[in-house]
Design goal:
alpha/beta; single chain; 137 residues; five-stranded mixed β-sheet; elongated; Nucleotidyltransferase, domain 5
């Protein structure tokens, strides 16, 4: 009868596995860049500061779910939100500011409005040098 020699089982030394995992964690933490310039720069009023505003100092900009923009109830352009539409919106905001420096722009949206359309409108209102922007009803 032939007897086979049993080989000793091979084990991987795992004593340094925790060190390797820790070094990998440190490497990824150090090499990862975190972008901090995301989001909207909005200065919120302090709590309890309610002021009455003259209705003549409020301009309403509405964006519906199809991307059409209404400026004080008038359609800015027949097409949905595109580059020419946004330039026209910027010029309308600049004209309103030239007529009244105290103008407050209220940007209103429907619940189904695309977030990207809302942000585009806010960006162009800010690009027209508007500093008083309301995002609530």
């Amino acid at each position: 009868m032939i007897k086979f020699k049993r080989r000793p089982s091979v084990e991987i030394n795992s004593s340094s596995m925790a060190d390797i995992a820790f070094l990998l964690l440190i490497f990824f933490l150090v090499t990862t860049t975190i972008s901090m310039d995301q989001g909207l720069e909005i200065v919120l009023p302090s709590e309890g500061n309610e002021m009455k505003v003259n209705p003549n100092n409020i301009t309403v900009i509405s964006v519906n779910e199809s991307g059409k923009v209404l400026f004080n109830g008038r359609l800015v352009k027949e097409k949905s939100l595109d580059q020419n539409n946004l330039y026209q919106l910027k010029s309308l905001v600049e004209n309103e500011l030239a007529n009244n420096e105290k103008m407050i722009f209220s940007v209103q949206v429907t619940p189904k409005t695309k977030y990207s359309d809302y942000i585009k409108v806010l960006d162009y209102v800010k690009a027209a040098k508007a500093t008083k922007i309301s995002i609530a009803n």
